[in-house]
Amino acid sequence: MTWHVPEPLVAAYVDGAVQGARAASIEAHILACADCRARVNSAVSVDRLTSIWSSVLDDAENPRQSWAEWLLTRAGVPEADARLVAAAPSLHLSWLASLAAVLLFAAWASNTSDRGAALFLILAPVIPVLAVAGAYGPRIDPTYEVSVASPYPTLRLVLLRSASVVAASGALALAASALVPDGEIAAAWLLPSLALITLTLLLTRWLALPVAAFGVAAAYAVPLLAITLDHGGVSTALTSAALQWSAAAVVVVALALLTADPHMRAAMRRNP
Amino acid sequence: MTPAAEVTDVRRRYGRTQALDGATFEIGTGVTGLLGPNGAGKTTLLRILATVAAPDSGAVSVFGRDPAVSGDRLEIRRRLGYLPQDPGFQRGFSVFEFIDYIAILKEMTSRQERHAEVRRVIDAVDLASVSGKRVRALSGGMKRRTALAAALLGDPKFLVLDEPTAGLDPEQRLRFRELVSDAGEGRAVLLSTHQTEDVAALCQDVVVLDQGRVLFHGSPAELTSVADGRVWFAAERSAAAELVWRGADGRFRHLGSPPAGADVVEPTLEDGYLLLVGRVDEEAAA
């Protein structure tokens, strides 16, 4: 062999500064040349070896990622936060599938009659709230006890998971809206839904997340369903400008109260 | 020296059940065993010490800090490893993912350091060969070891283990004893168990809880000595004994006040515990 890897190139290579074809030719050479291999070996720092080895182990031991973790990290969410979110029970496909089934039924019903339209307007806003109920809490999260005993701020966990399940279930509800022919009805659930979600988060100051979410969902849906079944549809009332403006007002007030709370502000920071 | 954990006259009621009824004791470093019949209040006590539940009345202190104060509670949680009685697992998480998840909750932010720590505890409980498997697909003993590994993350100074040996086979129990006795070096470990052998083999300190009160607190030798001169063998069942059962050699092992000339033998820790708890039942009946 006439050519050997010169010393400056060895240094550059072990620093990771040599790329592409040049790196490939160095690698081909050191596979064949014991001398240069020894020189490269002794030049690599232990830190770099450890870090390479641990990333190899990571890939070997941690090969799969759930679809939720994969999507979240793609969207720029830090990997630790993505894992905390992926542990939310209501991000599981079985949970989302049952929410989707309710939405499909409601969207289909909205085509049939005024009562059906009311049914869609009552159920669609509640769906993301139900997903929030299943995001974290006693008897909801299987590792609730351990997570309570950990130093991680509970409020941050609640917010991270709520935001993600609202995004996932909200996307489902939007997709279902596309099946509703009447544009006014298809859009009228959005503001009430946001109002219910912000109210739920506000209530977590005093109540466990599932209690707050189920409570808010029931307080909204049960009376409206009763009226619809008794007297016929309430879709005119639910699409009315008055109701939309009230929902918007609730969202604004609830958001203002939420962001005024120093605990809430601390929990919203990227690094707690 | 401040004790690692201290409870003073702690009471806690669940509905109509008085789970804790004025429990008072303190523990230091080393391994403390918590014994008691079902419903004695062991789990309630451990949940209170793990900052998951709060007492109705009484004082609790861990490393001199009060779990009722939020800043103190956070400092306790930073030093705590907790294995609940019925640990759950996220559907779909592998052993590695699950422990990594708990490590994130324990504020380990750097991915590389966190993963190294996750690997360390997985090795410690001997689960490296299944670290990529889903937790829900594992056997009961492996699930318990997975939860134990999560409790060991971050080298906690106070380990609270609720029935850690339930569902482990004899070999796993032995391995577990090694682990916990290592953990007890310079740290405080409080574990509840129904296995008196675990306590005899592992603990420097024993607390016996019954009906929400501390019935006994001392060394395993002291608990054993409760049965000194009160265990004997006989070919026939004797009415003088409080508890009798037939042993492997066909003779009857008696616990209680022996009749004259009885073949009195060395007691075990289990004998002491049974006599202690049995006597309370008598008092309650009287």
Fill in the keyword field for this structure.
heterodimer, A: 272 residues, mainly alpha, 75% helix, elongated, B: 286 residues, alpha/beta, Rossmann fold, 6-stranded mixed beta sheet, 4-stranded antiparallel beta sheet
Written overview of the protein:
The complex is a heterodimer of chains A (272) and B (286). Chain A has helices spanning 7-14, 20-32, 34-43, 46-61, 67-74, 79-86, 93-110, 114-133, 144-148, 154-177, 183-187, 190-203, 209-231, 235-239, 241-260, 262-268. Chain A is mainly α. Chain A contains 16 helices and no strands. Helix content of chain B is 35%, strand content 27%. The longest helix of chain B is centred in the last third of the chain and has 17 residues, at 269-285. Chain B contains 9 helices and 13 strands. Chain B has 3 domains: 1-79 and 156-219, Rossmann fold; 88-154, no CATH class; 224-285, no CATH class. In chain B, the strands form 3 sheets. A 6-stranded mixed sheet of chain B has the order 5-6-7-3-8-9, with helices on both faces. A 4-stranded antiparallel sheet of chain B has the order 11-12-10-13, covered by helices on one side. A 3-stranded antiparallel sheet of chain B has the order 2-1-4, covered by helices on one side. With 286 residues, chain B is α/β, with parallel strands linked by helices. The A-B interface holds A 51, 54, 57-58, 61-64, 66, 79-80, 83-84, 87, 89, 92, 141-152, 157, 271 and B 47, 50-52, 74, 77-78, 80, 82, 84, 87-94, 96-97, 100-102, 104-107, 109, 111-112, 114-116, 119, 131-132, 147, 150.
